[in-house]
Amino acid sequence: MANLKDIRDRIKSVKSIQKVTKAMKMVAAAKMRKAQERMEQARPYTNSLSEIIEHLLPDTDREKMPLLDIRDIKRKAYVVVCADRGLAGAFNSNLLKVAQKEIDDFGKDRVDIFCIGKKARDHFTYRNYNVINSHIDFWADMEFESAITIGRSIIDHFTSGAVDEIHVVYNFFVNIAQQEAKSETLLPLAYEADGVTKSDRLYEPSKDELVATLIPRHLNVQMWKYLLESYASEQAARMLSMENATSNAQDMIKDLTLQFNKARQAAITTEMLEIVGGAEALG
């Protein structure tokens, strides 16, 4: 059995860690509330813009716009949206598993990767994947311009013909207790024709001009959505992870306190027996 000093030091150490995890939980909760508000404000705009483009695309001449060019898929690009830090449970690992499986299934030699977040960059760089670009250390000051900057290089990679399709793997915020790793096709834009009902509306300007104007805005908004969803999911995952860590620390403190009391009782009993034994020997 460990001596009393070792157990006392362990209890002190666990209590210190518990204070840290509790503080991290409170910080993550505050950040999550702000991130969730921004995400919920952006969702209606994102969905409405997607619906408009979905109704305009069937009658649009795709050959006039490089962003609508559907090609034979010989090479792909993946945008992997992760966090810069850990301590968020399985938030990063679940996403990286989904991304790596899809990339390996297609062939890692035929995939270019854009990494958003240190965890994604470190994961794929260490395993010698073809990382084209990475964006880190911007989450704290994230604004819509961040999405535009990140999206510009990704879109140029498609329009230049370097890749034939671009996928984005990110965490979708379902609720505080659940985040879902999703993989979506960003480019080329394509929608199911079955779900679109054609109308006899007249457009001024023409549909092609509307699509040419809306698509760049749509892509920027999509990148903004991916960043907002991922950031809110990260904070929710970290909040729950730190809450569990705080609870586990409390359970550990109880167990260590019980061990300490048992060890102290055993030490007291031993001393009493020694005193009694010494007294009998003198008698």
Please explain how this structure is put together.
Helix 1 (4-56) packs antiparallel against helix 5. The protein is built from 5 helices and 5 strands; from the N terminus they run H-E-H-E-H-E-H-E-E-H. It has 283 residues and is of the alpha/beta class. A 5-stranded mixed sheet has the order 3-2-1-4-5, sandwiched between helices. It has 2 domains: 4-20 and 242-282, Helix Hairpins (Orthogonal Bundle), CATH 1.10.287.80; 34-240, Pyruvate Kinase, Chain: A, domain 1 (3-Layer(aba) Sandwich), CATH 3.40.1380. The protein is 60% helix and 13% strand.
Q: Could you provide a short overview of the structure?
A:
By secondary structure, the protein is an alpha/beta fold. The protein is built from five helices and five strands.
CATH topology of the largest domain: Pyruvate Kinase, Chain: A, domain 1
Alpha carbon gyration radius? 28 Å
Quickly name the level 1 CATH class of the largest domain. Answer: Alpha Beta
Shape field: elongated
CATH architecture of the largest domain: 3-Layer(aba) Sandwich
Ranges where pLDDT stays below 50 over 5 or more residues in a row are none
